[in-house]
Write a structure and sequence with these properties.
Layout lengths: L4 H9 L15 E7 L2 E6 L4 H16 L6 E5 L11 H6 L19 E8 L7 H14 L4 E5 L7 H5 L16 E3 L2 E5 L14 H13 L9 E7 L6 H9 L4 E6 L3 H16 L4 E6 L4 E2 L6 E2 L6 H9 L3 E4 L4 H9 L9 H15 L4
Parallel strand pairs: 2-3, 4-8, 4-9, 5-7, 5-8, 9-10, 10-13
Antiparallel strand pairs: 1-2, 6-7, 11-12
Helix pairs in contact: 4-11, 6-7
Bound molecules: adenosine-5'-triphosphate.
The site of adenosine-5'-triphosphate (ATP) has 20 residues, from α4 and α10.
């Protein structure tokens, strides 16, 4: 018989905890996933050192089950959630956990406009576009926030060069960071480096709710716009986001390639169903200018996104070149848009276009 959740839970129940009870009776297990001998779950709901101390015995108990190939137990960084916990108030809130009841989408305090940046396919440059557009808008005089909601692969701390853990003086409010003139918060800043995030459903809703409403977005002044860097695809995060807050618009990033465009169409369809207006499409990695000979090549095709935008009757916001300097700048934590040169200019034009539309 294939190993299932019940067998895993009963193995976990067999591990007695020092304070009495077990992880199941004390409701410390979240997001349990059991598939083909691979078991993963999150331990949450008690102090982090306490959870870390229980981890080896829990792993051993699960490993002893027949047919186990691997066991991953994730303990989120930081102390448990909940008011009145002094340890928490000293160290700051943990991210994740179940969402608090909320009646419909709510406005994020201190934020005028919220724009989500999405893509159908991964790796098309959505995070690169988000960070550079944020910097370009800030350079154009706007107050800009950037929320990295790419829960499974947060890259903004690296791209924006901000890796400090955000402070939380009262254990509830999270103070965002500031980098290159942009107010920044990323789920990645609240997790230990290399820690895998395997949240689903309720845990994810809770984390997003915290990112939107516990972060003091107007810490450096009220924001004209909050850009949200979404994970690729059409999953839980996009859905949760539209349930928690009202998106004023969504920008779709795609490469000109047919396969990326197909996925982009799915993302557009999803935003339409979620009643988030599509601001327009951006073509990234559009042309490649050889730094040696100046020859212009179209590695992923060219013009496909503009044509698709026309077909879908959506605005085409602009084309951004494939440029080694863009990647190097992102990897070094100084977005290309913060400097001078053609790539920075492309982003400045993009930012001006959005401002001219009266969106920001
Ligand atoms: N215009 C560009 N020129 C050169 N490199 C680029 C460009 N856009 C993105 N890249 C590089 O491509 C890689 C993927 O980009 P990025 O992480 O922004 O994509 P993504 O769509 O957000 O990916 P994911 O789906 O993994 O979050 C990065 O190394 C980035 O530096």
């Amino acid at each position: 018989m294939a190993l299932g959740k019940e067998e895993v839970l009963s193995a976990l129940q067999g591990v007695a905890l020092p304070g009495g009870g077990d992880v199941v009776s004390r409701d410390l297990v979240r997001a349990l996933a059991v598939q083909d001998g691979t078991v993963r779950f999150v331990l949450e709901g008690a102090a982090q050192p306490e959870l870390e101390a229980m981890r080896p015995a829990l792993e051993a108990a699960v490993r002893a089950l027949p047919g186990i190939i691997s066991v991953t137990v994730v303990v989120p960084a930081g102390p448990p959630r909940g008011l009145g916990n002094t340890a928490q108030q000293q160290k700051g809130p943990a991210i994740g956990g179940h969402a608090k009841p909320q009646s419909g989408p709510q406005k994020v305090p201190g934020v005028k406009t919220i724009l989500a940046i999405g893509s159908g396919k991964g790796g098309v440059g959505k995070s690169t576009v988000s960070s550079n557009l944020a910097v370009a808008l800030a350079r154009a005089g706007k107050k800009v926030g950037l929320l990295d909601a790419d829960i499974y692969g947060p890259s903004q701390p690296r791209m924006m060069g901000a890796t400090k853990r955000p402070a939380s003086p009262d254990g509830q409010t999270i103070l965002p960071l500031q980098a290159h003139g942009v107010t920044l918060m990323s789920i990645g800043l609240m997790l230990k480096e290399d820690e895998a995030v395997i949240w689903r459903g309720p845990m994810l809703m809770g984390a997003l709710q915290q990112m939107l409403f516990q972060v003091k977005w107007d810490e450096y002044g009220p924001l004209d716009v909050l850009l949200i860097d979404l994970p690729p695809g059409t999953g839980d995060v996009q859905l949760s986001l539209c349930q928690k807050t009202t998106l004023d618009g969504a920008i779709i990033v795609s490469t000109p390639q047919d396969v990326a465009l197909l996925d982009a169409k799915k993302a557009i369809d999803m935003f339409r169903r979620l009643k988030a207006p599509i601001v327009g499409l951006i073509e990234n990695m559009s042309t490649y200018i050889c730094p040696n000979c100046g020859h212009e090549a179209h590695l992923f095709g060219h013009g496909g996104v503009a044509a698709e935008a026309a077909r879908l009757d959506l605005p085409f916001l602009g084309a951004l070149p494939l440029d080694l300097e863009v990647r190097l700048a992102g990897d070094s934590g100084t977005p290309i848009a913060s400097g001078e040169g053609p790539a920075a200019q492309s982003y400045a034009v993009l930012a001006q276009g959005l401002i001219a539309q009266g969106l920001i």
